[in-house]
Amino acid sequence: MYAYTDSDTEVQTQKGTDVKAQRQAQLHSRQQTTALKFRLGGAQNLATSEALSPGAGPEGGGASQVEVGLRVIRRRRAKMAASTCDVFSFCVGVAGRARVSVEVRFVSSAKGKGLFATQLIRKGETIFVERPLVAAQFLWNALYRYRACDHCLRALEKAEENAQRLTGKPGQVLPHPELCTVRKDLHQNCPHCQVMYCSAECRLAATEQYHQVLCPGPSQDDPLHPLNKLQEAWRSVHYPPETASIMLMARMVATVKQAKDKDRWIRLFSQFCNKTANEEEEIVHKLLGDKFKGQLELLRRLFTEALYEEAVSQWFTPDGFRSLFALVGTNGQGIGTSSLSQWVHACDALELKPQDREQLDIFIDQLYKDIEAATGEFLNCEGSGLFVLQSCCNHSCVPNAETSFPENNFLLHVTALEDIKPGEEICISYLDCCQRERSRHSRHKILRENYLFVCSCPKCLAEADEPNVTSEEEEEEEEEEEGEPEDAELGDEMTDV
């Protein structure tokens, strides 16, 4: 702690709006992939572990399993009722509307809680906008110079700079540069460790919530600094594509350390779903690989050396650290930001002559081809965050809502995909568009392996009589994914310029 004193699938070119609609769909699909691929679970499959809650422990008195189960259900219902205000406290802009249009209900011991509409929500309507309790950029993403605000993850590069880095062409020029919304004149850095923020507001927010604890001061490049040792250990065991960050956990601890009302923050973090010990091991194995036990202990030791806090001492025990790790792996919502995609959206909104529109569309399509050839799939500044209300949304293979980050920062929008009636559950999908089109067997395989539950949504129930087979195309895709080495050359996947 430093002593603080202040804070695009190739697109065939067509005329007219078809090209815009096609590209917007592709950009939207890319955003959805970013928002989904890091999330290893949600409210589904809520288990009986309470390892993250203060005073948690086994039920005593030799009670029967039924009695123990009832106690757990009653305790969770009471906790849910008591924390209703907290559930909505991170909604922004339309926070008042969220309070009157949705409610959190306990669904079942298997499914946990869920989010339900209390009034008619029209298709296309923003149900709520929410900021995360904590968010953090992925460490490899940051190391490879995907420049983002250290607090809200807003992309800091100008759209043209972004295009130059992603194409590997320093002389790349974008038309209509005035459409770029990045304001470099507003950027500020921490005067002690030099991390960058998009604005004075973000710098102040970070300072007041967690950065005073995490600021390494002039030791930001010292490999022996406890936080740098922790980050290097994390990068050595968790290669791209990244799905979590040890720094999300670090910001949780730092938030509690700095908080005047520590109990409130501990209560907020304890709302996220917990897993059984076996499920936690599955999650850790998924994140760290076959040698996860030794790696987890190394991370716990370094985490403790850098951040120990008495108020959450249970987080630093072997069981508590595994639970904290599983919480982040299970509930972390992927966040993706890009100044280039914002510029493309702005270009699509321009009113141009047909000839000018065609030329611009050809340019943008070629730009994305060049980016794909040079950089591959890593286009965005990427990270993850913990969102209280969004975490209450269960999965469906036919979702009636979706998540996105249209403001190019960590503000999550949940939007209705269809009319949602009062009393109807609001469900998002943990699968991307392509995965949702796969067979029931394939969908269940992905959900079991990554989210540890069996889906019983209307689509899965309607396809219950289908044979448990995977198509040849899907098998080939899975074999390709499984055949990729975990520590493949990173230089071909990310751009370091």
TrEMBL record:
One of its GO terms (molecular function) is histone H3K36 trimethyltransferase activity. Residues 1-26, 464-497 are annotated as: Disordered. It catalyses: L-lysyl(36)-[histone H3] + 3 S-adenosyl-L-methionine = N(6),N(6),N(6)-trimethyl-L-lysyl(36)-[histone H3] + 3 S-adenosyl-L-homocysteine + 3 H(+); L-lysyl-[protein] + 3 S-adenosyl-L-methionine = N(6),N(6),N(6)-trimethyl-L-lysyl-[protein] + 3 S-adenosyl-L-homocysteine + 3 H(+); L-lysyl(20)-[histone H4] + 3 S-adenosyl-L-methionine = N(6),N(6),N(6)-trimethyl-L-lysyl(20)-[histone H4] + 3 S-adenosyl-L-homocysteine + 3 H(+). SUPFAM superfamilies: SET domain. InterPro entries: SET_dom, SET_dom_sf, SMYD5_SET. The keyword Oxidoreductase does not apply. Its EC number is 2.1.1.359, 2.1.1.372. It comes from the Eukaryota. GO terms for cellular component: cytoplasm. Interacts with the N-CoR complex. Interacts with EHMT2 and CBX5. This is Protein-lysine N-trimethyltransferase SMYD5. The gene is SMYD5.
